[in-house]
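Note to self: keep these together.
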Amino acid sequence: MAKITSEELGTLPISKLLIKQSIPASIGILVMSLNILVDSIFVGNWIGSIAIAAINVVLPVSFFIGALGMAIGIGGSSIISRALGANNKAKAVKTFGNQITLTLLVTISMVALGLYYVDSLIPAFGGKGAIFDPAKIYYTTILYGIPFLALCMMGNTVIRAEGKPKFAMIAMIIPSVGNLLMDYIFIYIFDWGMHGAAWATTIGYILCFSYVLYFFLSKNSELKLNPKCFALDFSIVKEISSLGFVTLSRQATTSIVYLLMNNILFDLGGEAMVAVYAIIGRMLMFALFPVFGVTQGFLPIAGYNYGAKKYQRVRESINTAIKYAAILATVVFIGLFIFPAEIASLFLSSKEGLSANELAINAFVLEHTPTAMRWVFAATPIIALQLIGAAYFQAVGKAIPALLLTLTRQGFFFIPLILILPSYFGELGVWSSFAIADVLATIVTGWYLNKEIKKDLRQ
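Structure:
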């Protein structure tokens, strides 16, 4: 695959450029998602279904802290893409230095708070009953690796903003492969249980950070830092914060959704129902990897060309990205509708000597997951418009509409639905909320995006 420089983001044909940007992003997301998926399969088979539920409880807290790095990364990368498009490399370099400083300050502070309130946070996110002890083991270990994860997530977006998608892809592959290898050694060979799963994940984060650091110190990066870049600049910090707040709000909302879902489902069906959601959550991360890949590939293209005032190319990139993402989303939808039971069975232990409780949980999960999965992914074919539409406003630096559209699905529609519908329809009310929220959010995003294109992207 040919190397892409930042200048080529404004000259190559959009279709060709989007494919070149999206394929490495999709592969990286695929490997990262496969890591989460296979990791869950390993944990479920080698430790037990309660362990899957325990990890699912911890994820929203650890991912929220890690997502601080992604928020700073995406907010700053929007500035970097537009600065490179406007041939202002000094601003791009200064922005990157500020991103590093912010990431370290914020995530280390959050880790300290997360460790201090560990016994309160885990039950609040659904870590009750038999789930609490394994969740605490996993949480307290991986939290030490979260600053490395945050720096990786921040650095990855900057690599992509430079027009280097292959390096960003490798940065996503390394921790995934490292984690799975450590899983095999720590869980299967050494039999360390939840300790092994947690250390495998943490080592994966450190390996990723090592590669990202190598990239920026090598000749491959255009952003050559100097000590002055690390001093915080108020105007840059303000812009990073306003744009990054969009990503952070999305992750915060996701964490709230996990909190509500784990507690609602625990009340409906105990640990077994939380395990069902854990499998659904893994598939939400894994199955849509090509759609997320197109979205990631679209961001630097739209940002660069907007900064260069090439508005026709921005319009073309929006249309092409929506078309490609919709086709891929439909393929995912078909696969999940046909094989939900087979997918659920992959996560369940088949080893001999399972207790009666473990056997009962496995039977419950296998019975309830297929219907839940079909409902959750029912509106998948139309989500491309929702994702690309929200991403466009972030790419071009329009923080307020980006924030509102990002929060539309989960914040404005999904959370109210799961607070209301289960009271009337029980478990069905929970799962159908996903599809209803997707449809409503897509309608709102489509209307607002069309209005913005007519207003802001006219020749």
